[in-house]
Amino acid sequence: MKAWRLQKYNKDVGAAIDSLTLEDIPVPEPQDGNVLIKTACCSVNPVDWKLFSGAMDAMFPQVFPSTPGFDVAGVVEKVGPGVTDLAVGDRITCDLGGASSNKQGPSGAFAEYCIAPVDFCSKVGDIDFETVVGLPLAGITAFQGLFTGIHKQDLGHCKEGDKVLILGGAGGVGTFALQLASNAGCHVATTASPAKFDFVKGLGAKEIINYHDQDWGEVLAGQDYDLIFDCIGLMDDLKVRAPKVLKKGGKFISIANFDPSAAKATDDIEFAVFLTVSNRTDLDKMVQMMKDGKLKVVNDTVYPFAETQAALKQSMGGRTSGKVVIKL
Ligand SMILES: NC(=O)c1ccc[n+]([C@@H]2O[C@H](COP(=O)([O-])OP(=O)(O)OC[C@H]3O[C@@H](n4cnc5c(N)ncnc54)[C@H](OP(=O)(O)O)[C@@H]3O)[C@@H](O)[C@H]2O)c1
Where in the numbering of this chain does the Enoyl reductase (ER) domain appear (predicted)? Predict the structure, then answer.
């Protein structure tokens, strides 16, 4: 099969992307509890290229040569021992959950076939692959941050009437967070560039702050927000702006501020940062919302498989609206 491969870490991430090679390698064999997926589409998440520098090795150790990519959609080609709830031919999507959780060695999504734990895979019915493939990692992240939690971390419990601010509503995760919070009956505000105002409004934002020219800490000061969901990761957002906007005991939940000092940045608000955990239960719920017409995936650009490096470079630019997809 053809697979994109990285040979080694490189602090210069752009150069690491340039160094990716498309190689012919054996199709992997699914072991206990895993399935082999024939990839139809994959989608890009910032973590794909962030891993290339080596800075995240402690969380997601790479075995080289490694195949990047977390999000995949395609057809089950083969099932491993013990798999009873998926069958050959099932149309599925999943977030592969990181190389560290795959005991069969590196097997990323940017390849003609990949291996996935069955517990991470959701059947997608007749939703087209190009659309659904943007959902898993970004959607699960928004869902866990807003409504549930992971491991022992208690995260958001958004409910009708809550005031929720989403920092970075136009991005991959933000587009899901806007829709999920809005569907739950929350009053949703977000930060975005003026060119994206209509875009985020269409996804449920009731109040939009132009982060280039306005300080959201001033615009929303004293408005007693229940929750801020942070997809950007700026320390000043947590330390300086959030205390002005959140109600007493309000929560600041980040997916992007992993600075160890963040936990102690302020006494006045509850801070949590988390790494999403792939799982079928959360993904199933959102696939069902898509089937019911209550959740959509917005694709910014769809690249052919041969242009995977360009897809990664676009994501690295940080200006995408919704998802960047790769089609095989
Ligand atoms: N912890 C986890 O489990 C987890 C999971 C997923 C993602 N993440 C992290 O979360 C972050 C967001 O991921 P993503 O997939 O949503 O990224 P993304 O799709 O690349 O986000 C791009 C979007 O961010 C907007 N943006 C950039 N700077 C902004 C700012 N200062 N204020 C408001 N909007 C801004 C851009 O809008 P403009 O063009 O208008 O600037 C663009 O629409 C990344 O750092 C990613 O690594 C963490």
Answer: 15-326
With a 6 A CB cut-off, is 255 part of the ligand 1 pocket? yes
Kindly report the protein residue whose alpha carbon is nearest to atom 18 of ligand 1. Answer: 171
240 and 179 part of one domain: yes
- Mean pLDDT over 294-299 rounds to 98
- Cα dihedral sign, 100-101-105-106: negative
- Do both 54 and 89 map to the same domain? yes
Residue to mutate (ligand 1; options 173, 178, 200, 252; most atoms within 8 A of CB): 173
Nearest CA to ligand 1 atom 22: 171
> Which residues constitute the domain of residue 99?
2-135+297-327
The CB-side HSE value for 53 (13 A sphere, CA atoms) comes to 11
Q: Please name the residue whose Cα sits nearest to atom 38 of ligand 1.
A: 319
Overall number of domains in the chain: 2
pLDDT tens digits along 97-147: 864 444 444 469 999 999 999 999 999 999 999 999 999 999 999 999 999
State mean pLDDT over 306-328: 98
Residue 304: inside a domain, yes or no? yes
Ligand 1 contact, 43 CB (< 6 A): no
